[in-house]
Design brief:
heterodimer; A: mainly alpha; Cytochrome Bc1 Complex, Chain D, domain 2; two-stranded antiparallel sheet; 3% strand; elongated; B: alpha+beta; Immunoglobulin-like; five-stranded antiparallel beta sheet; four-stranded antiparallel beta sheet; 15 helices; 18% strand
């Protein structure tokens, strides 16, 4: 193997050779060395002033006392300060006033959206679309009323959660408690199906209508349009909390249903509840 | 290195032979060695004049452009070229670019790159030699250096001299002048980002934003370092262009070349000697000492050569003195060089596949940009469909869909828009939190985001998905802007 051609003044090789390839033993560029030394000095200074070394149960804090947690706390505090002027106005304003004030409305909608995502979306869904047993808040079919005051009350006190102020009702379990014979339950189901304009067994529905007039009109009303005072749903609009097919309706009539919603008045601030109310009302179904 | 300024050695009558070796000669250059300083001698001639002219024009544009005014009416800045970061606008004379139209910048960069390719394949590295900021500012800095310390020989003497008072004073003046130019460079830069007269006042009274001082300092530093100290190292070690240009050149590209067929064999020439049997090059090394890159052009086409053509000027001066034809060093093509050795002159080929393709692509990009620029609207409408829930069934059997509608008003005045739909029979539109029915106002230069509910009966829809348009109408001008969307219902 011929030695590689070398020029005058070039450094010698490291002495290593791989398949005839040798490596020059060049000095490191001076600028590179200086940067390297500067980095070492910098890192030592960094250990002293910044949190750096893990200890058994803690870590070195550094003379500057920097902490990312403290930074986040400060940022949150700053955000709260920045929002405080709006939050103060929301605290004193009525729901109607907030709705009619463009600025407060925008703030409440944004604040309500984030509060909803944190507290409500677990049951009602991220788009408030609901699911079986958890009502869709976008539509205009309200169990307990869709006015601002109604929504606000429901959020504050919840439904069937055992507290004194909670919205509460109880549908009888007509089948289980033997208030109706199984055949009669079937007749009522046929009638309820026919109420929303769907094809049903006419004879059975006719028998069911009579039973409905006996047993159900107290709460659901003579025309079956429901009663928000009692939380009785409208049975004619083809919007179903637990599903609208015969099996689901039979289950409801036989066993009754009753979902639970927590009371939020002790968990959320009044301002947050106001923002949530405005947000839910603005989802499209508010009256 | 030379230094014997009044050297007795002559290359030809009236032409001194300078004892110098090219600093950057490829075969002599060790990989690791402290940079050897280059002291370019002053050149005189056509190309030097062209370079001064280009220097004046480019620096003039750079320093003065922020001060050019351009009336855009009320509510808009009157600076012709302005990058307005707080207002998120880029103003260039009659063109106004919004942040979402930043692809125009992409187009400009593509055109700039392709133009560089085109110019390079036609005329070699003229960008490097004449117009590159590194070349222009280095030229300016070398001129300042010469004004203060003198020409090449004086500068070399001063460099070797001990640190006397005179040397310190000269060096102080030189570096101070460089720093002043650097400050002006940084100062001009920040004027592109704010109203120049206002910012100038603020800068003087030290109440300008901190960031402008930071940028002035940064550009002062880079100008001082790159043009004053790094100089040719920027081109040889930092800039990728010398590497790329190898792919841009072909045998028809104009290059600064030494015509070896005419010059060799070189050697000094005595008065009365015959020119028979020898080359025209008298080996005076003038071409080497004027070179700002520290190379010897007679070694052939080199990576370091920025094609500044100062060696052409230097050589032509000598050729005139020894009474030989000019153009021993000249712009020529490799093909031309070869054909001339056999005596046949060859014109540079301007129209060839490479240049044609570059030109066509430039034209296409330019036309596309021009068409989009002239056809763009002063209003943008954008619709985002709610995905969750996709649709809402209402108690009266109708369906409702939710949308986020964004209206961008690019005019400099507030406008009112009416929002409606087309292609969806009996549809009703409601805007969340809007007290003015179906009309909304959008402030000048503003984007307004609206929550829109569209409600339609089942009869209006063809199936699960119905296409329709949002129609946003300017109530004063009647101009309508549409955006397609879909309406969904339970199948």
């Amino acid at each position: 193997m011929a030695a590689p051609k070398r020029h005058e003044g070039q450094p010698s090789t490291t002495g290593h050779e791989w398949d005839g390839i040798t490596e020059f033993d060049n000095p490191l560029p001076r600028w590179w060395l200086w940067v390297f030394y500067a980095c070492i000095v910098w890192s030592i200074a960094y250990w002293i002033v910044m949190p750096a070394w893990p200890l058994i149960s803690s870590h070195t804090k550094g003379v500057l006392g920097y902490s990312q947690r403290a930074v986040v706390e400060r940022q949150l505090e700053r955000n709260r300060d920045a929002q405080s002027s709006y939050v103060d106005r929301i605290r004193t304003a009525s729901l109607e006033q907030i709705r009619n004030d463009q600025e407060l409305l925008s703030f409440a909608l944004a604040g309500g959206r984030s509060a909803f995502a944190v507290n409500c979306s677990q049951c009602h869904g991220s788009g408030a679309q609901g699911s079986a047993g958890y009502p869709n808040l976008n539509d205009d079919s309200w169990l307990w009323g869709g006015k601002l005051a109604d929504i606000s009350y429901t959020i504050q006190h919840g439904i069937r959660n055992g507290s004194d102020d909670a919205r509460t009702n109880e549908m009888p379990a007509f089948g289980r408690d033997e208030l109706l014979e199984p055949a009669q339950v079937n007749d009522v189901v046929e009638y309820v199906v026919s109420l929303s304009g769907r094809p049903a067994n006419a004879a059975a529905a006719e028998r069911g209508k009579a039973l409905f007039a006996e047993q159900c009109v107290t709460c659901h009303g003579e025309n079956a349009k429901g009663n928000p005072e009692l939380g009785a749903p409208n049975l004619t609009d083809d919007i179903w909390l637990y599903g609208g097919d015969r099996a689901a309706i039979r289950e409801t009539v036989h066993n009754s249903r009753g979902g639970v919603m927590p009371a939020w008045k002790d968990r959320l601030s009044p301002e947050t509840i106001k923002q949530l109310t405005i947000y839910v009302h603005a989802l499209g179904g508010g009256r | 290195m030379d230094g014997k300024a009044g050297s007795e050695v002559t290359a030809a009558p009236g032409v001194a032979q300078i004892d110098v070796e090219a600093v950057n000669a490829a075969e002599k250059r060790p990989l690791y060695e402290k940079r050897r300083k280059i002291f370019p001698r002053r050149a005189r001639g056509t190309f030097r004049k062209v370079k001064w002219a280009v220097l004046c024009v480019t620096l003039g544009i750079y320093y003065l452009l922020p001060w050019v005014r351009w009336d855009r009416g009320p509510n808009a800045p009157d600076q012709a070229v302005l990058v307005d970061f707080p207002g998120r606008r880029f103003y260039f004379f009659f063109i106004e670019i919004w942040p979402q139209e930043v692809y125009y910048i992409t187009g400009l960069l593509i055109i700039a790159a392709l133009s560089l390719f085109l110019v390079t394949s036609v005329a070699g590295r003229v960008w490097c030699g004449y117009a590159c900021p590194q070349t222009v500012w280095t030229d300016l800095f070398i001129w300042v250096e010469r004004m203060i310390e003198g020409d090449r020989n004086a500068r070399m003497r001063l460099d070797r001299a001990r640190w006397t008072g005179g040397k310190i004073v000269k060096r102080l003046i030189k570096h101070a002048a460089w720093i002043v130019i650097g400050v002006c460079t940084g100062g001009a830069w920040v004027f592109y980002f704010a109203d120049a007269p206002t910012l100038a006042g603020q800068l003087v009274h030290f109440d300008a934003p901190l960031v402008s001082y930071i940028f002035i300092a940064l550009l002062t530093f880079t100008t001082y370092m790159l043009a004053g100290h790094a100089r040719e190292q920027v081109c040889t070690y930092m800039c990728p262009w010398p590497r790329i240009q190898g792919a841009m050149l072909d045998e028809h590209s104009m290059l600064v070349t030494y015509r070896a067929w005419r010059g060799e064999p070189r050697g000094s020439h005595k008065k009365g000697d015959s020119w028979e049997g020898r080359g025209d090059c008298v080996d005076c090394n003038s071409c080497v000492v004027v070179c700002p890159m520290g190379i010897d052009i007679r070694d052939g086409n080199q990576l370091e050569c920025i094609n500044c053509a100062l060696c052409i000027d230097a050589c032509d001066e000598v050729m005139a003195k020894v009474d030989r034809p000019r153009g021993l060093i000249a712009y020529d093509t490799i093909a031309g060089l070869e054909s001339r050795t056999t005596g046949a002159a060859l014109r540079p080929k301007l129209f060839r596949a490479r240049t044609m393709i570059y030109a066509v692509v430039i034209a296409i990009v330019g036309i596309v940009m021009l068409v989009t620029l002239t056809s763009r609207s002063d209003t943008d409408v954008n619709v985002l469909r709610d995905r969750n829930p996709l649709y809402v069934k209402l108690s009266d059997g109708q369906f409702r869909n939710g949308y986020t509608l964004k209206i961008l008003n690019k005019q400099h005045e507030m406008r009112t828009f009416r929002i409606g739909t087309a292609g969806l029979k009996d549809a009703t539109v409601s805007i969340v939190g809007n007290n003015a029915g179906d009309t909304v106002s959008v402030g000048s230069d503003r984007l307004r985001s609206l929550r829109i509910y569209v409600t339609a009966p089942v009869a209006a829809t063809a199936g699960g998905v119905t296409d329709f348009d949002f129609v946003v109408t300017d109530t004063s001008s009647g101009a309508a802007f549409t955006h397609a969307s879909t309406f969904r219902r339970a199948p």
